[in-house]
């Protein structure tokens, strides 16, 4: 190995470590390594910046806008609600609901699809005494599978497409992925309704538990001077008999009293830390002399007037709130909302709400103004997955919604007929949507997820560094020396497993960008069709089923479903094996 190769290898390993340990947002970690390569002279400014003008990356930005315009008007959401309610049988209802989802996710970004349908499914389950955990993981998995059917179904496909064009190869056609995507979607569908369904947890009981939200939150109350039971015991104050609430700790100055005994004396200024169900936390403020710490001037009583609402959000991987306490993040002033409670799956957070250090997947219960959802629906800091009280009063023009869908279908037809490239079609689509005032330029800007674009564009530079330094060729040679004695099928399996491993522990786009240069070197050495290798890498990078952190849709349902990390392993490992074997067999048969 040359010194240049060693340098690139060390930096790539450091990048992977940083992503795995979540020392910063993924886009910042990858961009930092790109800057190092640029400053070291390994990459020229043109090479480092090439990803920012890549056709695939720019197409993703335009697709964010088109998909946002389609989903803005709620036509798909309302149609799916009616479709879901047409059957009373759980399996039949699930089948009816999930059947159209692969089609939607084949042409729309799957992240907003999951964000949109998560609260719909939760509410439907609660009304029928069904555990949402039986449905939310399949929601994520089926949208992931549906995204593999077309070129525009997932950003990963477009990233690989853009890289192929940059390397001078022919890219994918719109429906080229369908050869693999449709079979794995059908197989995944069957699995999730049979063996997979049995492995899905039933974290809620039926009747009584489902009447309230399934998750326990942490809430904080301050004892004021007019509290009737100052200098009385917890038992005398009636704080041991609150339905759905449990007093876990008292913070008195710098002292922590835990566990709290019935005989513990309550003093003025005490901070009472409760854990409880969402539906009962609002009852705390009814106790005179106890003040609910929301970090906001908003009051739970304002819910009655419709001026405020309870909103549930999930902290994203790209959030600027990560590794900061709620107080340090100045949550109230930034978002004009107070944090009522925090839930972290399988972990009781014994801390004042303001002192909780936020992590990806944390679910926050917010007391927010009535326009919060509209304002922060596209926020990169968190996914808004539930409005627990009255929905926003936003009424969209149905004609505009149908026009948006018509634009998307027209663009797909233009690409399918070969009249326009994907990039040109999406550019025309965005132009029409803004021209006809379906969306405003400001809305278009908000729909674009810039953190994802920065990650993808930076990752292109990392891939260039791996190719230019010879590291990709060296890694490919090592892979071939391992797999060649066993035949091409084993080599393809190894490529798939390595890509899939990266996507589970880092991100899907980064995994694709890292593995494609290696895959192309393998294709060249074996003298086989590069297209089959590229499709294997694209599918493997998207097919993240084993952890909640590998793909954003898995993270979105992690908190609302009340899942354990092990639930993803139990349900996801068999599905991953099925998808891998199916993909490799089809690619081997069609392209080699």
UniProtKB/TrEMBL annotation:
One Pfam family matching this protein: CitMHS
Listed InterPro entries:
Cit_transptr-like_dom, DASS-Related_Transporters, Na/sul_symport_CS, RCK_C, RCK_C_sf
What are the GO MF terms of this UniProt record?
monoatomic cation transmembrane transporter activity
Q: Does the keyword Transport apply?
A: yes
Which interval of the chain is the signal sequence?
none
Ranges for domain RCK C-terminal come to 206-290, 298-382
The superkingdom of the source organism is: Bacteria
The record's subcellular locations are: Membrane
| Keywords assigned | Membrane, Repeat, Transmembrane, Transmembrane helix, Transport
The UniProt entry lists membrane topology as:
Multi-pass membrane protein
Which SUPFAM superfamilies does the record associate with it? TrkA C-terminal domain-like
Q: Which GO terms describe its biological process?
A: potassium ion transport
Query: What does UniProt give as GO cellular component?
Result: plasma membrane
The principal location of this protein is membrane
Q: Any transmembrane segments, and where?
A: 6-21, 28-45, 57-76, 97-121, 141-160, 172-193, 402-435, 447-466, 486-516, 528-551, 571-591
> Which PANTHER family does UniProt cross-reference here?
BASIC AMINO ACID ANTIPORTER YFCC-RELATED
**Name of protein:** SLC13 family permease
Source species of the chain: Filobacillus milosensis
